[in-house]
């Protein structure tokens, strides 16, 4: 079946992770006609499996990646300013452990970290006495001194979704569950075959961005048959989620004896997120999971520092992802550059129809990567994303609690924990989710953990959610807070609405009728 809809674009973006969504948003805002094709859900792979930090990368200073750290630190505060609902400051506690990095080196690194990125919004680093609360009793008794510094948390998959939403509102055509199954350069343009739930369509584009992440080489093989070279190194990173291991809003960053670091971060109020690993990966990046060896590694690393040991069987959830890094021939997976690298192909005799493939990158620098990608493609219009708020982010960067208090006065009937969560998720678009409801019961079926039919319908209509998994593990992390029966009830809701087999308008109307 051949579907209808726009067929001719300035730019086709393949891949709906953070890089693809960021490029689509930037390009649409510059007036380009843009199509983004994602074969699964937005942020369905690497971009929802991160450690969920917007940070400079303190350990990258050891590898002399000063430009990457500086750019990341500048972007850290820019992103905090344009998306303060889904990004917020955290304080990281770095214990000093004898026999590892000396105190003078940690102090020097934190001095550089505070100053090379033009820090303005976040507080500086300071020394800590770890024998006093809140660290006493949490950390091993041998750890008496340490440091505290600033970075930020990000709801990673929501960052991707909001970039895609903003791109669509600026005219981009966002197609999820749509795979680019054919890509051919002909007569100075690209012809791409896009296959999705509604059928197959051939579209044309003057330029293509290959932001397929772990599948970047697959897309290149379709576009350039016979190309054998690969610059991609896949590195698997896994995380464990435990019932809360310590009180307080601070995080810990632990130095491991193999030179790596492991984070322990407050997560979803009731839990602690611990990770990550760096393991060479081969095979299909879809559907990967943490291995027993990785789980043992994570637990062994944190048990060097915590007063009470943890074990893999205590974890309530885990997740894993594959980082599509540029292969700089480093012998150690932990030292492979996290910087991004572009490969630009303009065809024979520079005939046009550019193909730009992206290797590497990190969430923190996605916006700058998008700017550089469009510059590489010769899109000369003015960059605009540095100061433009993402959807729902038009609130003061460091006054989120003031925003919540104002919303509580407007919606006094909304339970405080639900209001806090929804304000974080939707920011100033909270009212659009709640509609004209005047009581919690007006929001329709309650699936559990404060999730209602009104919110699910909003996510379907406006944020491309098509399944219970999209809602519970990417648009939110409510799956952690719900029972198996509650999660199943949401799956049944989607099945009854037949979201994946009919137009969104018909599905949401059917759900509303119920």
Could you characterize what this model shows?
The longest helix has 17 residues, at 66-82. Among the domains are: 8-46 and 158-231 and 338-376, FAD/NAD(P)-binding domain (3-Layer(bba) Sandwich), CATH 3.50.50.60; 232-322, D-Amino Acid Oxidase, Chain A, domain 2; 400-513, Orthogonal Bundle (Helicase, Ruva Protein, domain 3). Strand 12 (251-255) and strand 13 form a beta hairpin. Strands 3, 4, 5, 6, 11, 12, 13, 14, 15 and 16 form a ten-stranded mixed β-sheet that branches. Strands 1, 2, 7, 8, 9, 10, 17 and 18 form an eight-stranded mixed β-sheet that branches. It has 14 helices and 20 strands. It has 514 residues and is α+β, with helices and mostly antiparallel strands. The model is unreliable at 503-514 (pLDDT under 50). Helix 1 (18-29) packs parallel to helix 4, helix 8 (400-410) packs across helix 9 and helix 11 runs antiparallel to helix 14 (504-513). It has helices at residues 18-29, 66-82, 103-115, 156-169, 216-223, 292-303, 366-376, 400-410, 416-426, 430-434, 453-463, 468-475, 484-497, 504-513; strands at residues 8-14, 34-37, 53-54, 87-95, 126-129, 145-154, 173-175, 179-186, 189-196, 199-210, 232-243, 251-255, 261-267, 271-275, 279-280, 317-326, 340-345, 355-360, 446-448, 451-452.
Write out key terms for the chains shown:
FAD/NAD(P)-binding domain; D-Amino Acid Oxidase, Chain A, domain 2; 24% strand; 14 helices; ten-stranded mixed beta sheet; Helicase, Ruva Protein, domain 3; disordered C terminus
């Amino acid at each position: 079946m051949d579907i209808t809809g726009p067929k001719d674009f300035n730019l086709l973006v393949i891949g709906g992770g953070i890089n693809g969504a960021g490029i689509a948003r930037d390009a649409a805002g510059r007036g380009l006609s843009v199509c983004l094709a994602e074969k699964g859900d937005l942020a369905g792979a690497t971009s929802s499996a991160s450690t969920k930090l917007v940070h400079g990368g303190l350990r990258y200073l050891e590898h002399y990646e000063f430009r990457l750290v500086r750019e990341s630190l500048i972007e850290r505060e820019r992103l905090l300013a344009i998306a303060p609902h889904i990004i917020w400051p955290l304080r990281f506690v770095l214990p000093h452990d004898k026999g590892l990095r000396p105190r003078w080196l940690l102090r020097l690194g934190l001095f550089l970290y505070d100053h090379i990125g033009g820090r303005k919004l976040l507080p500086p680093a300071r020394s800590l006495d770890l024998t006093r609360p809140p660290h006493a009793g949490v950390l091993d008794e041998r750890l008496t001194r340490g440091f505290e510094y600033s970075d930020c948390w990000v709801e990673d998959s929501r960052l991707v979704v909001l970039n895609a939403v903003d791109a669509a509102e600026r005219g981009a055509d966002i197609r999820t569950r749509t795979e680019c199954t054919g890509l051919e350069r002909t007569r100075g343009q690209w012809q791409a075959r896009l296959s999705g739930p509604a059928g197959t369509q051939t579209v044309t584009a003057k330029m293509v961005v290959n932001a397929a992440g772990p599948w970047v080489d697959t897309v290149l093989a379709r576009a350039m048959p016979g190309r054998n070279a690969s610059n991609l190194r896949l590195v698997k990173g896994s995380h464990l989620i435990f019932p809360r291991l310590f009180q307080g809003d601070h995080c810990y960053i632990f130095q491991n004896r193999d030179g790596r670091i492991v984070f322990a971060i407050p997560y979803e109020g009731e839990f602690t997120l611990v990770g990550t690993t760096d393991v060479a990966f081969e095979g299909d990046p879809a559907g990967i999971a943490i291995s027993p060896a990785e789980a043992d590694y994570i637990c062994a690393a944190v048990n060097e520092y915590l007063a009470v040991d943890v074990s893999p069987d205590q974890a309530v959830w885990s997740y894993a992802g594959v980082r599509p890094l540029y292969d700089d021939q480093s012998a150690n997976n932990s030292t492979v550059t996290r910087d991004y690298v572009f490969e630009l192909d303009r065809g024979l005799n520079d005939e046009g129809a550019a193909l730009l493939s992206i290797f590497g990158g990190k969430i923190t620098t996605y916006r700058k990567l998008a700017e550089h990608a469009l510059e590489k493609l010769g899109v000369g219009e003015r960059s605009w994303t540095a100061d433009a708020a993402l959807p729902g982010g038009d609130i003061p960067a460091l006054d989120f609690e003031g925003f919540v208090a104002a919303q509580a006065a407007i919606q006094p009937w909304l339970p405080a924990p639900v209001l806090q969560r929804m304000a974080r998720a939707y920011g100033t678009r909270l009212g659009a989710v709640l509609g004209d409801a005047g009581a919690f019961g007006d929001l329709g079926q309650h699936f559990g953990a404060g999730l209602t039919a009104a919110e699910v319908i909003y996510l379907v209509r406006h944020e491309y959610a098509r399944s219970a998994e999209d809602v519970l593990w990417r648009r939110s992390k409510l799956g952690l807070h719900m029972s198996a029966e509650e999660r199943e009830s949401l799956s049944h809701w989607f099945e009854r609405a037949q979201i994946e087999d009919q137009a969104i308008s018909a599905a949401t109307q059917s759900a509303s009728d119920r």
